[in-house]
Amino acid sequence: PQPPPTPVIQFLDYSKAMTPLDRYRKHSLMFDYWNDTLIDALQGQSPNPKRYRLASTEALGELETLKGLVSDELAARLAPLIEDRVQIDHQLQSGILAAYEANTVLRALEAQTREFERGFYWRDVEDQLKGTGPTDASPGDARTD
Fold first, then answer.
1. Is 125 exposed, middle or buried (0-12, 13-18, 19+ CB in 10 A)?
2. 15 and 144 in contact (C-beta within 8 Å)?
3. What is the rounded CA–CA span in Å between residue 5 and residue 71?
């Protein structure tokens, strides 16, 4: 008897078909998801450390990816937000938060969320993305996952 055939899996890379705006929108939505997950994790009576640590790490990663997708001027405006988020991430990764610490972090996250929505919404930055202008870098320069 012959062994059963093994399937051949071929993954297609659709990232090259994405425009800079699509890439920014994708990572912006992922940041929103992880940021909302982080805020929800901190709002409970007893915050779940595993949940808020993962959400914090992922949200920070998405912010850093977004920084790589925008022009240098916009990236400079995003840098202080990322620096604040790095400090919050270190605090969240360092240990279990007491209730008052979780409330402090929660207020800081909510303020950052408002700042991000005011200054970095995809419709407001679509003309400042890398690869959209004649002098910008090509879309392949940014992380495309």
1. buried
2. yes
3. 50
More confident call, 86 vs 18: 86
Spatial distance between the Cα atoms of 22 and 129, rounded to a whole number of angstroms: 10
| The pLDDT value given to residue 19 | 86
pLDDT of 133: 52
Q: Which of 29, 32, 82 is nearest to 60 (CA)?
A: 82
DSSP character at residue 129: B
d(CA 91, CA 104): 11
- Alpha-carbon span 144 to 138, nearest angstrom: 12
Q: Are residues 46 and 104 in contact, defined by beta-carbon separation less than 8 angstroms?
A: no
Return the closest-CA partner of residue 54 out of 69, 35, 79, 81: 35
What ranges in the chain are assigned the alpha helix state H? Answer: 20-43, 49-69, 72-94, 99-119, 122-125
pLDDT tens track for 40-72: 988 877 778 899 999 999 999 999 999 999 999
C-alpha span between 78 and 70 (Å, rounded): 9
Hey, what are 76's tokens?
A: 């400079």
Rounded to 5 degrees, φ, ψ at 95 are 175, -170
